[in-house]
Amino acid sequence: MRPDPVRGIRPLFTRELQALLRYARDDATTHIRNHFKYRTEIDVDHVREILERIIARRFLPDAEEVIRRFTRTAYFRGIDQSTTAIDIGARTVGTPVAISIGFTQVDYRAIDNLSAIQLTDLEGITAEMSAGLIHDLVAADKQGAGITLITKVIAEDFQDLGIKRIERIARTSLNRAYNDAAWTRISEYAPYKEWIMTRDSRTRPSHRAMQGVVIPVDDYFDVPGFLPSPGAKKRIPPAKMLFPGDISQNPHIAQIVNCRCALAPRFRKRD
């Protein structure tokens, strides 16, 4: 039996939803009691209006946020096999709670995507080398290795490629495979998707500009062009992508190589 990837966090978010329901119930009780304080007749329509207003204002927005955080938390447990643990700040009835999550679930969709990647379009990579590189990459990824260990494992068989190039190939391939799997997964249950960048100075300007962009799940992100360096004369052209790392529309290689951005589900557009 495959382990439940969200077993450890489900009770936390369940308790938070239950707390929201209790607060909404108490709020409703107070309003209904005030309604009958000076009335003897039962105005069913007005009572219903009170309940609907409380549900809309007091419960639904917070509940949607809880569900969104739970979905993203559960989703990320299956997308980043290189991470061994993270700390997540969760709010339970106004009290901060820290929990630690282990990443042990293999994302088989991503593994299938990774296994299908061909590297023969890269300079100096033969079909035999491509198959060997991907084999080593898949094997290391299934063991939950991070990018540093994966690079080291591959370098044992392909020393001539150099550590930097191996790391670049591994990171780019992993990013494409996992974000492709994420997009497939998200399209099964969420109407929208969001581009999530890595917040550091290494993120290219075009991907930094995509942070927080939310679009329909089947649409293409319009990734802007950018200058690869401050003094560069040639601008990298814009690209269309279903997800970070997507090559279906033949983007310039500078838009995908070493990308560390991710994809997340959204259930409504930003206001």
User: Would you report the number of β strands?
Assistant: 7
Mean pLDDT: 79
Order of helices and strands: HHEEHHHHEHEEEE
User: Helical content, roughly?
Assistant: 40-55%
Catalogue the unreliable spans: 79-104
Question: Radius of gyration in whole Å, from Cα?
Answer: 24 Å
Strand order of the largest sheet: 4-3-7
* Proportion in β-strands: 5-15%
Query: Which descriptor suits the 3D outline?
Result: elongated
Which sheet architecture does the biggest sheet show? Answer: 3 strands, antiparallel
Number of domains: 3
The tally of helices reads 7
Report how far the terminal alpha carbons are from each other. Answer: 42 Å
SS class: alpha+beta
Describe the structure.
There is one protein chain. The protein is of the alpha+beta class. The protein folds into 3 domains: 10-102, no CATH class; 106-186, no CATH class; 191-271, no CATH class. The chain contains 7 helices and 7 strands. The protein has helices at residues 10-37, 44-79, 108-116, 127-142, 147-155, 163-186, 205-208; strands at residues 85-92, 95-102, 192-196, 214-216, 221-223, 239-241, 262-266. The strands form 3 sheets. The protein has a 3-stranded antiparallel sheet. Strands 1-2 form a two-stranded antiparallel sheet. A two-stranded antiparallel ribbon has the order 5-6. Helix 5 crosses helix 6 (163-186). The two termini are 42 Å apart.
